[in-house]
């Protein structure tokens, strides 16, 4: 049994040793029976997608199929491993492997998108600037002493300053 996935979820599938669901933010594995309660207290394990490093998927074949959620520090179970029946991150199934494929695909998509967002440097596009915002401008720089003397010389050449006015203004700039 499965629910129809959106881009990241929700999807779920019920198997032989439990149920797995993914809502786009976290993966929840619920296991029933005394064995499950002995393993994890409540029989439910929830892992945020940020902690997931991968999904190991073995479709149904001669035996049962298996989906295992990998988190940092875990390894995928060996082929024909019996550990999956006691692993809180694994659900075995005999039928409905397409339901489990949908769960796997939704998780894989979320992992790929997370990687793409991380490597691009942005988790989302930057917000637009507020109304009326303008980028900062550089303060006007004061002209250098040489530029100021050059301006005075041009004023004198064009007849706007006399020789005496030029000499006084130049001496003032030079601090004399």
């Amino acid at each position: 049994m499965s629910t129809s996935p959106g881009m990241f979820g929700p999807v779920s599938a019920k198997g032989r040793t439990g149920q797995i669901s993914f809502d786009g933010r976290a993966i929840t594995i619920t296991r029933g029976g005394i064995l499950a309660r002995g393993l994890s207290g409540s029989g439910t394990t929830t892992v945020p997608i940020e902690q997931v490093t991968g999904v190991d998927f073995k479709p149904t074949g001669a035996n049962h199929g298996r989906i295992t959620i990998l988190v940092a520090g875990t390894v995928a179970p060996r082929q024909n491993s019996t550990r999956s029946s006691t692993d809180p991150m694994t659900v075995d199934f005999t039928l409905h492997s397409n339901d489990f494929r949908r769960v796997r695909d939704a998780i894989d998509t979320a992992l790929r998108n997370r990687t793409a967002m991380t490597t691009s440097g942005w988790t989302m596009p930057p917000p637009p600037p507020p109304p009326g915002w303008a980028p900062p401008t550089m303060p006007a720089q004061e002209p250098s002493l040489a530029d100021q003397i050059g301006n005075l010389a041009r004023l004198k050449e064009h007849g706007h300053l006399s020789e005496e006015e030029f000499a006084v203004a130049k001496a003032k700039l030079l601090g004399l």
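The chain has two domains: 11-120, 143-176. Helices lie at 33-40, 97-120, 145-157, 163-173.
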